[in-house]
Amino acid sequence: MLRNQKLFARCLLALALAAATASAACGRAREVSEASAKSPISAAEDSKSPALSLPPDNGPPPRFDDHRAMQYVKEIVAFGPRPVGSKNHKKVEAYFDAHLKGDEVEDDIFTADTPEGKFPVHNVIAKFAGTKDGIIVVASHYDTNYPLRNTSYVGANDGASSSALLLELANQLRGKKRDGYSVWLVWDDAEEAIKPDTEVPFLDDSLYGIRHVAEKWEADGTLKKIKAFILADMIGDADLNVDRDSNSTAWLEDVVYEAATRLGYQSHFFARTLPGLSDDHIPFVKRGVPSADLIDFDYGYNDVFWHTTQDTVDKLSPKSLGIVGGTILETISILDRMNPLPPR
Ligand SMILES: [Zn+2]
Q: Exposed end of the chain (fewer CB within 10 Å): N or C?
């Protein structure tokens, strides 16, 4: 999760939704507003969700082992801080490798040119084939904040929780051909800014891994096949309140809410709307891919645990992982059977 979004969130009370002019009052939040204004996606706030043709709610509820997912969170965190270029980061890469043995995995490895020099970046993409033509992507970043690299910061919620969730999704997806779209899980790397955003504009210095994936898939034609991009970020908080995000695609968020409602989880979703979150979904939103950022950006009172050494496992709950994991699987199941999907 990007650094200056915290300020942005703190400014929410002070800002009107159209924050561009008022943002100077909130210091670095200005960068977020400008970035939102720059991108074609700010129009999303005005767009109305089309009428959806939803399939009947007659399938079995999804399976998701929340305690196993929680165990993965603990194991990822146990490696210690995992900023890009670190030894611990390598250990987490090997950990994913071990868990995805036998799966179809694409390693997207490249060198990122950052304000602190060159860093190796390693996106891990596990592909689970379906019978339908099209792909649903579920993503999570796994690196920890670079400026905090010499502290005990382990990003239990920010990075580990969602990455563990994806590992459990892989457990549920493997071993059978899906009767639906293919599902690709992406553990993206170098999401966090390298420099404090006081020094480098954050959009110029973050999302290195997922930007690379989006560019590559645009070049090779994969992008056209992607029906939905679902991002999980900071979803392990025991006090789970997933926010609606105005940069996300309204109809896809509506499907997520429908999925949550079918499972009885709706009280954990979308009570609050955040204007213009800049997260890993942005490179896909910009390219016209329906995208939803599932993020609980209220981590502790006034977000006090976010990007601090307080972001530890004791703040999390397996139940929250299960709620978001189940909702993502149910969302995929609804998307599989929606005919037609809304046009891009
Ligand atoms: Zn973060």
A: C
Q: What is the pTM of this model?
A: 0.89
> What's the CATH number of domain 5-337, 3.40.630.10, 3.40.630.30, 3.20.20.140, 3.30.470.10?
3.40.630.10
Handedness of CA 51, 55, 60, 65 (dihedral sign): negative
In the chain, the amino acid numbered 133 is D
Q: Which residues surround ligand 1, an ion (CB under 5 A)?
A: 1, 158
238 C-alpha to ligand 1 centroid (Å): 18
Give residue 145 CA to ligand 1 midpoint distance, Å: 6
* Domain ranges for the chain: 5-337
- Decide if 203 contacts 193 (C-beta within 8 A): no
Q: Rounded to 5 degrees, what are φ and ψ at 45?
A: -60, -35
pLDDT digits (tens, 9 = 90+) for 138-196: 999 999 999 999 999 999 999 999 999 999 999 999 998 899 999 999 999 999 999 98
State the pLDDT at residue 198.
Answer: 87
